Amino acid sequence: MKFSTYAVPMIIGEIRRFLRDDHPVKVPRSYKELVYKVNRSRDELSASLGREATIGEIATSIGVDRDEIVAALEAVQSPTSIYDTLYQDDSDPIYVLDQLSEEKEIDPRWFENLALKEVLDKLPEREKRVLLMRFFEDKTQSQIASQLHLSQVQISRIERAALNRIRKLSQVNDRSNLDLAHSD
After folding, report:
1. Range(s) of the domain holding residue 165
2. C-alpha dihedral sign at 131, 134, 135, 137
3. Measured at the alpha carbon of residue 162, what is the angle toward residues 158 and 166, in degrees to the nearest 5?
4. Which of 1, 41, 45, 148 could bridge to 53 as Cys pair (CB 3.0-4.6 Å)?
5. pLDDT, tens digit (0-9, with 9 covering 90-100), for 117-176
6. What gap in Å lies between CA 179 and CA 93, rounded to an integer?
7. What CATH number does the domain containing 134 carry?
8. Is 162 buried (19+), middle (13-18) or exposed (0-12) by CB count in 10 A?
9. How far, in whole angstroms, is CA 154 from its chain's centroid?
10. pTM metric for this prediction
């Protein structure tokens, strides 16, 4: 008897068992336990209330934050393939892929906003906060100073340092992109 005759069915069986018993996407045990509690609480509350329980009622019942419940419920959902059939009658089936919209008009600033967020995330918290208040909340240096209990001069220095840091970071990124372009 060849080894492959034995090994192939065993391997296929183990893969199927893994996918059936252990979720295809690794979900923390704490989420699985929380979902069990949520389902049990939902059933109990629905029976006592005579209607479907809300997430807020379930959260109160088991003493867990609503956001944690939502995160756990989303985590245990089985992944959906874009090729799954949504609807089929006598004609061609409609797949999930068919329902995904293609944005015809993507905001050209999207990439710039993404790059700006990436650079801002590299700043120290204080500099980031000052720049956000100054340029995204349209506050004056004096307003920021009073809110942060600093002087206007200190805010000016923090702002200048942050802008210099952004300039340096963007120059490094530009050089990296040029290096990548020349290495192709």
Report:
1. 122-183
2. positive
3. 175
4. 45
5. 777 888 899 998 998 888 888 888 999 999 999 999 999 999 999 888 888 877 765 555
6. 48
7. 1.10.10
8. buried
9. 36
10. 0.38
